[in-house]
Amino acid sequence: METTVATIDFDSFDHGSADEKKIVGNAIAEAFRRQGFLKLVNHGIPRHTIEELFRWSERFFALPDAIKAKAPHPPNPIPNRGYSGVGLENTSIHGSQENKVTLIDLKTFLVTKALFDQECFDQGAEDDRLYANIWLPEDDLPGFRSFMEEYYRIAYQCQQRILAALELGLGMAPKTLTGRHSRAENELRLTHYPLVPVKQLRGGNCTRISEHTDFGTITLLFQDAVGGLEIEDPLQPGRYRPIESTALDEMIVNLGDCLQHWTKGQLRSTRHRVHIAQSDLDADPNAILAERFSVAYFAKPNRSCSIQSLAAECPPGEQTVGDFLLQRSSTTYGYA
Ligand SMILES: O=C(O)CCC(=O)C(=O)O
């Protein structure tokens, strides 16, 4: 049974009266309190931009492995930049058995030891102070980089408007959240889940993405119609329910660990995963599950902020967001 997640029309935050803006802010805060997830429509990112985003993603992942390997993700979780493949494909990127093992570990959650059936491309801000992006040579996919940089800016503007609405909903002073995201130290991820036999996903040692929470503030996600995304039922821990999009431009927004910390657990960072769509549960085990595409924009606070409080500068003795994110990446991917 599909979980009931609030669908919020963002248009009246952008164009409505002060009262209407407050109603939108309250609805966002309430959905994050209750479930940690919501769906947003009329969020201001045009449908044609999202369609183009998915077309670029399809073109990128359709490239031969040897080309994608020209933008390799480093063989550790940080910096989270460049292309990561699946299983054997990773060997072709780094060329050695040792690196192959490292990359399989990178994409394997310690909890389940399940191998991810996915490949992805990760990108940060163009002017990120710490980590440079890892691009393909322009000739290998002309126009990809400029579109992706433009989309990163569009998603950032959208994220800031959502956070401004949340400030209203939580009764925070303006800029309490947006001001702590002034550097756009975020991550944009294209994910491709390749064709996979149904029986492989049912076997228990392979999944599309294992259960996890997101580390940052909020995530703006677009998914195609294949299905498989599930969120943990807040009232029945351990029970996952599907969350589907009714249109490609319906945005799924979920809360991450940083905001859960800042609100002392008042808002929830909910576990989610990608496995097999409900409609495919009874499929013939020999059937092949359709490939799936999604695009996630992970908004994160400036690394210099405190994870423990909303103090303007991280006070001595408190952990910075940068250190927190580093720790979360290391423990999640088994590097701690
Ligand atoms: O592909 C999806 O729908 C979700 C992806 C996700 O949860 C992630 O990349 O953290």
TrEMBL record:
Keywords for the protein's UniProt record, in alphabetical order: Iron, Metal-binding, Oxidoreductase
A UniProt-annotated Pfam family: DIOX_N
GO molecular function: metal ion binding; oxidoreductase activity
InterPro entries per UniProt: DIOX_N (IPR026992), IPNS-like_FE2OG_OXY (IPR044861), IPNS-like_sf (IPR027443), Iron_ascorbate_oxido_reductase (IPR050231), Oxoglu/Fe-dep_dioxygenase_dom (IPR005123)
Domain Fe2OG dioxygenase: 184-301
GO biological process: small molecule biosynthetic process
Family: Belongs to the iron/ascorbate-dependent oxidoreductase family.
Protein name (record): Fe2OG dioxygenase domain-containing protein
Organism: Penicillium crustosum (Blue mold fungus)
